[in-house]
Amino acid sequence: MTRNYNRWPEQETAGRVCEAVFMTPDLSHLISGPSKGSGPQSARARKQEKREQMPEVVVAKPREGKFNKNAARRVRVAGKIPAVLYGSGHAPVAVEVEPKQISRILFSEAGHNTIFDVEVAGLPAAKAMIVDWQREPINDRLIHIDMKRIALDKALRVKVRVKLVGIPVGVKASGGILDQVLREVEIECLPANIPANIAVDINHLALFETLRVSDLPHSDKIKFLNAEDATVAHVVSIREEEPTPAEVEAAALAAAAAAATITAEPEVAKKGKPEADSGAKKPEAGAKKPEAKK
User: Fold this and answer.
1) Distance between CA atoms of 223 and 150, rounded to whole angstroms?
2) Spatial distance between the Cα atoms of 5 and 15, rounded to a whole number of angstroms
């Protein structure tokens, strides 16, 4: 490239800048941000969504031998969870399952109400639910699982979590606090209609107002077994309540009784022999003592 040395320094600098601009390759595709739906986070989210959409399949291995505490301990040492599968007219079967599969079910959105497929060697696959589980008190590790076969055409009784959505106006405007009394409600419905939770909007809840079971969203597919007037949540005041006149009077009487008990002095017993009757005369100094009878 031929360079002209007769130009002023400003012109020379401008020429260099122009040469650098035209010679620099286009790197916009390298410095631009990731396109929508790309990246490790979005891939992880898609994988999690796909996993939630797919029904969980629990592969259970039948247990053999004795079913006592020592046998269950050996199953846990091997990294499995001892479990039992029963219901739907079949005999109970002692099995062992993978802890990761059970944890995914219990920590899912539907929790223990999740319906999954269970496969046991030598038995046909069946739909099942987790009806009971035990954890170690110290390590919070699963130590036993109860699974129950279910029929999709028969109604079940399950407990579903109540999810409160929003912030009550009684909390934002009046300074109250929200107290949720009922965190789960018992319902009866078909297995396919079991909701992950029952969400209810509480933004309209004012101070001292109560949300009851009758205020929860109802449908013809779900039957609530709790009393309709049972309290789910309410907004209460955080200020101390003034005592009633009866309580004030009772407190005053109790304080007076306590003061009287403190001011009263106990009697102190005198030491020595008790004095003789004050009415009896003492013998004179010069008087003779009576002679004793012979």
Assistant:
1) 19
2) 11
Q: Which two tokens stand for residue 144?
A: 């036993």
Q: Which domain holds residue 164?
A: 157-236
Please check whether residues 92 and 146 belong to one and the same domain: yes
Cα–Cα distance measured from residue 78 to residue 67, given in angstroms and rounded to the nearest whole number: 16
User: pLDDT per residue over 187-239, tens digit each?
Assistant: 999 999 999 999 999 999 999 999 999 999 999 999 999 999 999 999 999 76
Residue with tokens 């020379």: 12
At residue 171, what is the residue type? V
State the average pLDDT over residues 18-36. Answer: 46
Cα distances (angstroms) measured from residue 257 to each of 131, 235, 260, 261, 266: 57, 39, 5, 6, 16
- Reported as a pLDDT band with limits 50, 70 and 90, residue 264 is low
Cα of 75 vs its chain's centroid, Å:
29
Check: CB of residue 127 under 8 Å from CB of residue 115: yes
Residue 198: name the closest of 209, 186, 210, 208 by CA. 186
User: What CA–CA distances, in Å, run from 5 to 1, 10, 15, 19, 21?
Assistant: 13, 12, 11, 16, 21
For the chain, how many structural domains are there in total? 2
- 51-90 pLDDT per residue, tens: 555 567 899 999 987 778 888 999 999 999 999 999 988 8
Using only C-alpha atoms, what is the Rg of the chain? 42
* Same-domain check for residues 177 and 211: yes
Distance CA 23, CA 41 (A): 37
Give the residue ranges of DSSP H helices in 204-265. Answer: 245-263
**Is 0.90 surpassed by the pTM of this model?**
no
173, amino acid identity: A
Does 4 fall in a domain?
A: no
Quickly list H helices, 63-98.
69-77
Q: Are residues 110 and 196 in the same domain?
A: no
Determine, yes or no, domain membership for 125: yes
**Which helix H or strand E contains 193, and what residues bound it?**
none
CA nearest neighbour of 141 among 103, 97, 84: 103
